[in-house]
Amino acid sequence: MKKTPYILLLAVMLLAVLLLVPSPALMEEWTPDLSKLTKIPLDAPAGYPPDPDGYLSEYAYEDPTISIRIESTRYCETTVYVARVKIADASQLRTALAGPYGAQRTAIASKLAKRVNSVLAINGDYYSFFDSGLITRQGVTYRKRSNVDLDVLIIDKNGDFHVVKELDRDTLIAADEAMGGSVEKGGNIVQAFSFGPALVENGERAHDVFRRADGGATINAQRMAIAQDGPLSYVLVCCEGEDSGESKGLTLEEFGQFVISLDVETAYNMDGGGSTHMIFQGEKVNNLTTQKSRGVADIIYFTSGVAK
């Protein structure tokens, strides 16, 4: 009997095991050092600057209060980036606006991220270019209007995610009462975004069909999602589009299925298309083969909790 096929099979199996097992550095469990933490005031204009020595590689950062790892993969002929973030305190998950509420101002995402000392940032919901939904940033509620076409993502003062589906008057009132309103009024709501749809709720698919009122669900496009997979633990996901020349882009259904496969507790679709930005080390991570991008109205960012 020839042994060559069996040797080749064994070699392939060993290679598969090596590819599936993460490096020792990635397998180590990160634990925050709370003795190094200084909570960031809610109304602070920026977070604390990152430690230059905290950048472990092109796609990794770590200091005593925050751990970030970014990986890329291919899914449905499209490049997808997955960033995993752990923080020591909820005050390190923050938002920033390009300009005063109502100004409809935009900014280059990388410049906005640098302004607020972001370690990792993504685009938000483009809140200033529609006039409904629940909009809260850093504990200040700017808008509270129903819109049944919108799902809302609420982030509370503990950094936990909550989804309100199909925001009509009753669900808006119920959500506001359940959360005690925004932090500025003594409640629990620190951030609220109106875009959606929700992709995952309580660990399960959030909708039978993922829809967008603007008809963009079936288009192959760049997309962005933010998810929570545990206390103070988050997953950010974005995909490239066909203008990159290397990806076809994902429909909302394809994108949702990928996010669901990550075993997160809650996940929410943010603005996409040319607004899709993942910013790390001050640079855009996604869609580097094209210069096409648009200014953004807001970002969500994570910052160090080590005061300098």
Which properties best describe this structure?
5 helices; disordered N terminus; 5-stranded antiparallel sheet; alpha+beta; 16% helix; globular
Count of all domains? 1
Arithmetic mean pLDDT: 90
Strand content: 25-35%
Rg from alpha-carbon coordinates:
20 Å
The separation of the N and C termini measures 69 Å
Helix-strand topology string: HHEEEEEHEEEEEHEEEEEHEEEE
Segments where pLDDT lies below 50 for 5+ residues?
A: 1-27
Count all strands and give the number.
Answer: 19
Biggest β-sheet: strands ordered side by side in the sheet? 1-2-3-4-15-14-16-12-13
Specify the overall morphology. Answer: globular
Largest sheet: 9 strands, antiparallel
What's the total helix number? 5
Structural class: alpha+beta
Helical fraction: 10-25%
Task: Describe it.
- Helix content is 16%, strand content 32%.
- It has one domain (35-302).
- The chain is globular and about 45 Å long.
- It contains five helices and 19 strands.
- Residues 1-27 have low confidence and may be disordered.
- The strands form four sheets. The chain has a nine-stranded antiparallel β-sheet with strand order 1-2-3-4-15-14-16-12-13, with helices on one face. A five-stranded antiparallel β-sheet has the order 5-19-6-17-18, covered by helices on one side.
- The protein has 308 residues and is an alpha+beta fold.
- It has helices at residues 4-20, 24-27, 109-115, 169-179, 252-260; strands at 55-57, 60-63, 66-75, 78-87, 93-97, 120-123, 133-137, 140-145, 151-156, 161-164, 189-195, 198-201, 204-205, 223-230, 233-239, 266-270, 278-280, 283-284, 298-302.
